[in-house]
């Protein structure tokens, strides 16, 4: 029978007998563990030689002898000779040192696990029966996939003083645009502080006892002021909770993520930021608009429509090699367009309004600068929308004029007609 243990190898002597490919693989793992490594082998494969070189690992270039194992906490043998491996196992048994026999046939007194990690949680897979590394690797891969799916709660049960805040970018909406890191942090979270936009459907998948605090603006509700949001995340983290501040798009693109980082740091709360897919780029993309299309636009100017027009924005709109992207701009766009026309931006500069990108309500309205205000009014364009001004917004640039892509659609060209 086997008991699985987590053992700390940091600074402890681990001896690897043999210089082939199995040794190379294990060396990488033990190097990461911080072990005090010794390799004993008459010859090294180029791979092992490289590792020995790169990590200043001790190498005794001769056949193994019993005294090589003195002082070892753990020995790994993979010499290519079953007899030598068996001899190493016997020496280890005699001196009460655990030994992994990777030489095939029988295990030694210890066995490797196929290991997978989700944050600080490690899962190892091994077997009581004979050695079958491909099998354990496959089981381990399945477990990794499960952990990455976010379906396994990774929440700490024991109270800890170590609270933590993660500002997590949730992308423009669909849960499958969340990153693996975002999913893991959500699976670890005690408290989730959520906006209105972004991957809010993921909240339904959380453990029922995860505290969800909505701070975004909902119809008929005022949003929680930013100062209060800062307090909420800091207070919970200071109480030892793992806090995820789930934000739409990317935390650092008009997300006030910078202020939240500052609030955490000045309260002495550890904070990390997980990037998300920003609507500024991904919402135009969903409508078939590449914000920098080779030969059409070589740079990108991003603005918050609420903060008015600056000379830089007017210059961008005038320049046909620049794409101007406006977030939060639905209400102010008519005034912005008027200013731009007055400043000499061409009246036929293409404009696209992309509403609710990447959701089932996605809709694109294509127009020109001169006609934009009226077109938006007639179509009833509403928030959330990304507005693209520039040649990349031209009808027909990539897709036929008739094809308004559905979210997550696969684009294809109909060559039969
Ligand atoms: N941090 C976010 C932006 C926050 S500002 C990001 O990186 O995406 C909020 C604005 O983002 C909205 O007013 C709208 O302009 C845009 N937006 C967010 N999600 C959107 C979506 N699914 N479709 C269209 N626009 C969206």
TrEMBL record:
Gene3D superfamilies named among the record's database cross-references: Cobalt-precorrin-4 Transmethylase, Domain 1, Methyltransferase, Cobalt-precorrin-4 Transmethylase, Domain 2, NAD(P)-binding Rossmann-like Domain
Enzyme class: transferase
EC number, as in UniProt: 2.1.1.107
Residue stretches making up the Tetrapyrrole methylase domain: 165-372
Key words of the record: Lyase, Methyltransferase, Oxidoreductase, Porphyrin biosynthesis, S-adenosyl-L-methionine, Transferase
InterPro entries: 4pyrrol_Mease, 4pyrrol_Methylase_sf, 4pyrrole_Mease_sub1, 4pyrrole_Mease_sub2, CobA/CysG_C, NAD(P)-bd_dom_sf, Siro_Cobalamin_biosynth, Sirohaem_synth
The protein's name in its UniProt record: uroporphyrinogen-III C-methyltransferase
Domain of life of the organism encoding this protein: Bacteria
